[in-house]
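Please check our next protein.
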Amino acid sequence: MGKHILFDFDGTLVDSRALLVKLYNEMAVQHRFRPIRDQDIAFLRTLSITERVQQLGVPVLQIPKLIAAGRQLYQENIRALQIVPGMKEVVAKISAQGMRSSILSSNSTGNIRLFLKNNKLDSAFKEIISAKHIFGKHHSILKVMKQWGVSPSRMIYVGDELRDIEACKKLGVPIIAVTWGYDDSRLLLSGKPDYLVNSPSELFKTLMALT
């Protein structure tokens, strides 16, 4: 049995940072949070998700409500989103090699399926799983492992955030961290990922060496 690749979605497969900043700023005006300016983005990428929330002055209790509202706004803007350049080819090559891959994301399955359909990737992934725990992704990964009856060593996670690395470390799941997503490479390195890649072609080579 080969390994199963679990992809994060936002930041890893899809370039959605600009859209999420735009949606956050729309909600920031409404709720009187601190907006994100263009010059803030590089600094915010060096912060963990908890530090980011504190820096922006977002009350933790309001986060679930904001995520729900954000998902709806995201769906309305989904046609404007682009797949990360080079990732469509990686997904196609993985599929051609007979590797099984799925998506695990804090985004909604509806949003992800719509994006995949728009980009003719409907059949590229075995499963689309929505992670309910934004601060405890390991719960969602563990649930997937139990459902599939696979051990941590039979999985590979591909993600772009420190919280992805922390979740995988808790479970012993090998993780490939990508540097083109939400978190800065220095922040990713602080979590000691098993592999750090700087381009989709490097990601594909790493996956081929591991499977």
The longest strand covers residues 100-105. Residues 68 and 108 are 9 Å apart (CA to CA).
